[in-house]
Amino acid sequence: MTGRRHRLIIVSNRGPVTYDRDANGARVERRGAGGLVTALRGLREHHDVTWIASATTDEDRVVAGEGRHDVVMVAHDPQAYDLYYNVVANPMLWFIQHSLWGPATTPVVGRELHEAWHQGYETVNRRFAEAVVAELDNDPDATVFFHDYHLYLAPRMVRELRPDARLAHFVHIPWPVDWTVLPVAMRRAVHEGLLANDVVGFHTARWARNFERSCDDVCGSCGRTEVTNHPISIDVDEFERLRDSERVLAAEDALQRPEKLVVRVDRTDPSKNIVRGLRAFGILLDEHPEWRGRVKLLARLDPSREKIAEYLTYREAIDAEARAVGERHPGAVELQVADAFPQSVAAYKQYDVLFVNPVYDGMNLVAKEGPLVNERDGVLVLSENAGAHDELGEWAVTVNPFDVWEQAEALHAALSMDAGERRRRAGAIRSQVRENDVAKWVRGLLSDLDRVSA
Ligand code: F6P
Question: Is 35 close to ligand 1, i.e. is its CB under 6 Å away?
Fold first, then answer.
């Protein structure tokens, strides 16, 4: 800590660590899942940090009762947490913000959502707000830094109890202009909750602009809240160390590749557009027989949010599409569904084409991680709706995520690109990622937080 800055209270659904018991009953500590947690670690070098997060395992709940100073685990009522996480945050808010609903038929909003809103989302946000206020009572000068769509209501709850609190919020997912799918009272609560912050940050100017527009529509204006944008990135040193780690080298040895390898790495999330991606790869082989037997698509997929019906249906659609392509082109698609990060890094090193085609994505760190460690001057095929496209689009082959025909042609163009052009583009992306790493994102956030604290 520099001594110059106020204490920082980070508030996010997932925390920096999570606890379990091993076979012998001993407590084991694991790093929390997700890019957000890794990225926020840098803030701890500049601030005395207290991190407030949900207890997600039984052992977390035990730790919650022990009163640690640096990590506060909030033990929610399990039923409230289920409604908050599995009904409201995912899928309702997540689907709105990634434009995944199909308004002709979905969602059908009914009593379930209204009850989940009050008994789940409000309840859990209230518990977070109470935990924040308890921390502020210990240190009223601390700055509070909320993260993501799980916590849209908490800032206003804190503001009502502590009007002078310094509050910031970072939204890691896209912000759409149109929120009309959400009942009007909830829509207002989301916007008014966020506007209780002094600063609201997004990854790109596009999401920040959309936020200002939807605030105009829903609340008339943004009031005194400052809206900023800072693109999140990756820890370059960490990836360079990982690249040569034993586990990655072993995974690389096991990797089976034909002449050309197309790789995608995603959570099994409908926003990632895996089904259309498989369809596009099938079209590539249908339309360009010269690639048959010479190219494989390796889809490395981490299972995600498996209690949610929309995710289960999507998982089935992935399997069905992979089977359909496989029947026409045996052996052309390999699906690996498992949480296996070393395998993902091995695939990053080995791809000829990295296929990143999300419907919408706040940033998409795969588009940064892959090019940093790739050893084959691989080509990035990138959706125009990924936040990462703002920084990397110039050197990628851009695709519209809905257009499978265009995606098939983009894969063909990427696979056919000459060596000089591939080297030029891959080198430019690598430099861009190196020069704009997570430390720069953290510096941007710090300057926002300093302004809030001033
Ligand atoms: O910002 C989106 C995010 O919260 C990321 O941190 C992470 O990649 C993903 O969603 C994880 O989702 P969940 O916590 O539901 O597994």
Answer: yes
In 3D, which of 55, 37, 35 has the Cα closest to residue 341?
A: 35
The pTM for the full model equals 0.96
Q: Which residues contact 5 (CB under 8 A, 6 or more apart)?
A: 46, 47, 446, 449, 450, 453
Domains and CATH numbers, the chain: 7-233+439-453 (3.40.50.2000), 236-434 (3.40.50.2000)
Residue nearest (by alpha carbon) to ligand 1 atom 15: 305
Say if ligand 1 is within 6 A of residue 171 CB. no
The tokens describing 226, both together, are: 């400052």
* 268 and 301 Cβ atoms separated by less than 8 Å: yes
CA distances from 136 to 124, 348, 352 (A): 18, 43, 51
Count the Cβ atoms, other than its own, within 10 Å of residue 2: 9
Q: Using one digit for the tens of pLDDT, what is the confidence trace for 351-406?
A: 999 999 999 999 999 999 999 999 999 999 999 999 999 999 999 999 999 999 99
Closest CA to 9 of 201, 140, 160: 140
**CA distance from start to end of the chain:** 18
Sheet with 353-356, side-by-side order of all strands: 333-337, 295-302, 260-267, 353-356, 379-383, 397-399
